[in-house]
Amino acid sequence: MVDFKNSWIDNGFAIKGVDDELIIEQYVQDALDFSSQYGSDISISYTAYNISGRPSKYPDYGDFPQAFVMRTYGKWWDEAPSRTVNIMPQNSGNIVSQDYIDVTFEQKVYPTKVSIYETYNPGSVVRISAGDGLGMWKTLWEGEPQCVGPSPRIFSPEIASIEFMTCLLRIEFDHHQLDYYTELDAILLVGSSSPRKKADVGKITAKIKGMTINTFNNEIDIANTLNSLSSLAQHYTALLEDINNEIESSCLVSCSGPFDLLPDETILRVLSFLDLASLSRCARVNRHFNRLATDTMLYTQLNLKPYWSCLNARALQTLSTRCQHLQKLDLSWCGNYAMITSPDIVEFIQGCGKLLTVIRLNSCKYVDNRCIQEIAITCRNLKELCLRNCFNITPDGFENLKNISTLERLDLYRTYIESPPLLKILEASPYLKHINLGSCVRVSSMDIVAQGLGQYNRQLVSVDFWKTYSLTPLGVRALSNCPNLEEVDLGWCLGVSIPGDCMSSLANGCPKLKKLFMAALRGITDRDLLPFLKCTPDLEQVDLLGVRSITPHMCLRFLTTFKSLRLFDISFCDQIQEELVEEWRLQFPNVSIKRSFQSDGVPSPFQHY
Amino acid sequence: MQAITWTGRILSRAIWNGINNYSTNCTEPSPPLKKFEPHILSVVSGFPKEISQNKLKKGQFGDDAWFTAKFKTADVLGVADGVGGWRNYGIDPGEFSSFLMRTCERLVTSGRFRSAEPANLLAHSYYELLENKQPVLGSSTACVVVLNRDTSTVYTANIGDSGFVIVRHGEVVHRSEEQQHYFNTPYQLSLPPPGHSRLVLNDRPESANTTNFRVQDGDVILLATDGVFDNVPDQILLNELKSVEGERDPLRLQSVANSIALMARKLAFDQTFMSPFAKAARANGINIIGGKPDDITVLLATVAM
């Protein structure tokens, strides 16, 4: 092993010659892209930005604003009223990723080691991929999330070698097994200026390890398996094209043996359990199978998110011929780095969008006004539209959505929507049930929006105002017009800090509340929480993080009153002693009581002032 | 006798602090062959008011906090003085000022600021307090000085009674204005505990007093908390500052910073001395004499163009 001495240069990377090659260690230069963050875009606390540079907290362990934190942990979000239904779950395979972050480094290298500094609740990293910045991705490592103890760790798994130099990494996360939010301090990329030697035994072992024979669970296996087992195609994309070419040129008579005897419906039923990659493979067997495996009835629901690393415009085009009856489409995470462009989406929607009821385009940066316009024109029955992190849509683009009157779910997390188009959309959507307006920093008055919700969307079930600063008690009061409301996220709505009587209105107006997040509403007192005890018996998840003045007495009443309470976050509530929490945990084993902490441990040797 | 021993101890602590700072400034890597470029040479010195009770923390003297940072063509210095009254509420006043300065430092080193807008830097840092899960409560005065090397201009922002002095050719050429609501009650940024907001003075970060001033080679910049300005008469301060005009030797600069800090410390505890603080008090009809015991922070810098 090479001995790295810390010869730091300005931007945090070290160079040391070893024989004829150069070993470069570098920390993240920039967080290029990510799927979610706890913090807000107008701040640096708990944001993705914090992953850049050297570790600032490691080896301290705790909940620090200097770290990168994402929005979810555990299974709570899957149990909340706002949960979404997974489309084509068979595509996801064993390794499910919920979040990702793309980070760039200054120097391109052949990676030899990736070290992830986890300073709080480690264990959620499930995949590390290297990109060339032009849309090609290779997996360096993947594995199931780990259950590790509450101590800081540097996660540096054995990584596969790749044939190109990279300065772009994507880290994917699965938070399901976590007890609380995970926090990342830094990522160190170690690499060399020359590729690993061909005779490297490590490489071969890694390759064999990376191949899971007989289970084709996800794109990585496909890629690996095809690379090694088949010379026909390298990617799913290529596979798709290949099939088409083959079909056109072939004139073989069908001979599927006993399969010919089965009715098509039976085979289709069997095929419907297959993931997309397997379907494509079936389509290569013969004409009979090809006809069946490309049957439009198998493509009513399409989840391409697990294939984000290899999906491109041509694959989308090929698929469009089979998607005449497409109803649900999840294209999230796909097509960035110019793999798919806005016109491709427009064309796809034009061709296959007539019956679409669900469209998820989360983190698709290329989605712009033109796409939204096309969706608004073509998809007349659209019920769900998710546009998280779609920055390229302007208020004018959003305005098109007012032409859809069937919307039930609208996710606009971290988009640049503004109040006027949003109000028009709300007015046009009487059936709206779920809306996510988290971190929509350009909405100048969330109060008007909340009043709009109270006026036009009485069927509302869930609303997320996470980190929206313009919401005040006035807006919260307006929400009490929605009697079906089951979930309200007012986390970090600092404008609601001094709530007046709005919490009372909310509790009285929304008796079905199940999830109530009020993180960091510092001015909330026992008096504001009292009405919930009386009016909302079904509360399951309550977040009171940083609500400084609530008393142990009130917490105990919450725990005893709400029989179905499952999640209770009372982190940073200064008046609640740790001993009491321990006691409650024994007394109420069904409730997961969360207590986060920031500890001043031993000063980190990495810390630089 | 005892006095001498603690003076010795704190002096060595002060020097240690200063050298620490000096070394971070000096070891910050720069291309070795590049020619001399304009910069600020800065050192720090200071004393906490209650020496025995305080753990010495980097970047803090008691309730005072400071930072120095640079990004591209900007050198940034800052001091903040946590308002001590919060101790009665069980709140450590040093936490607020320290968080404010640490955040400024993070913002500067990451380039998230504009050198001509130091008030925005303060404001951004202040709003970052609101974003912390653990509520950091308290209040603080703050003063930030940014030297833009491209334009040879310093941009300053000041809230409250910390401040800066710029000395050239033996004269004060530029200095901060004190902002007070009334005697001994400076403007301050604050985050009161819930329920106390009405009783607390809370000045918006936007109310910072901002100035800009063109500096020349050799100018001396003193950035200090009220522990210095309230105890050391201007003339004495000026004499000290004069002696380091154009100083390039960090050790000599350090010794002057130390002597200013030590002087402030001594005068603060001199009960017969007619300090600037006592004079101001008398002007407000309060008949007192002697220095004002307080935390002391001295950031001393020379401009090398």
TrEMBL record, chain A:
Keyword Cell division: no
Record keyword Membrane present: no
F-box domain residues: 256-302
Signal peptide residue numbers: none
A Pfam family reported for this protein in Swiss-Prot or TrEMBL: F-box-like
SMART domains: FBOX (SM00256), LRR_CC (SM00367)
UniProt cross-references to Gene3D superfamilies, sorted A to Z: 1.20.1280.50, Ribonuclease Inhibitor
Keywords: Ubl conjugation pathway
A GO BP annotation: SCF-dependent proteasomal ubiquitin-dependent protein catabolic process
Entry GO CC: SCF ubiquitin ligase complex
Protein name as it appears in the record: F-box domain-containing protein
Organism this protein belongs to: Nezara viridula
UniProtKB/TrEMBL annotation, chain B:
One GO MF term: metal ion binding
Domain of life according to the entry: Eukaryota
Annotated EC: 3.1.3.16
Annotated ranges, domain PPM-type phosphatase: 48-303
Catalyzed reactions per annotation: O-phospho-L-seryl-[protein] + H2O = L-seryl-[protein] + phosphate; O-phospho-L-threonyl-[protein] + H2O = L-threonyl-[protein] + phosphate
Pfam families: PP2C_2
Necessary cofactors: Mn(2+); Mg(2+)
Keyword Hydrolase: yes
InterPro entries from the UniProt entry: PPM-type-like_dom_sf, PPM-type_phosphatase-like_dom, PPTC7
Gene Ontology CC terms, in alphabetical order: mitochondrion
Annotated keywords: Hydrolase, Magnesium, Manganese, Metal-binding, Protein phosphatase
PANTHER family: PROTEIN PHOSPHATASE 2C, PROTEIN PHOSPHATASE PTC7 HOMOLOG
Family as reported in the entry's similarity comment: Belongs to the PP2C family.
Listed name of the protein: Protein phosphatase
Taxonomic source organism: Nezara viridula (Southern green stink bug)
Species classification: Eukaryota, Metazoa, Ecdysozoa, Arthropoda, Hexapoda
